[in-house]
Amino acid sequence: MVMTEASTIWFDGALVPWQQAQVHVLTHGLHYGTGVLEGTRVHGTADGAAVFRLDDHLRRLVRSAGMLRLPLPYGVEELAAGTLDMLRANGQRSCYVRHFAFLGYGSMGLDMRGVPTTTVIASWDWPEAVEARPLRLKTSSWRRNDPNSVPPAAKATGPYLNSVLARREATDAGYDEALLLAADGSVSECSAENVFTVRDGVLRTPPAASGALEGLTQDTVLTLARDLGVEVRVERLLRSDLYAADEVFVCGTAAGIAPVGSLDDRELPTAPGTLTERLADAYRAAVTGENPRYAHWLTRL
Ligand code: PMP
Question: Which among 88, 102, 95 has a CA at the least distance from the CA of 11?
Answer without folding.
Answer: 102
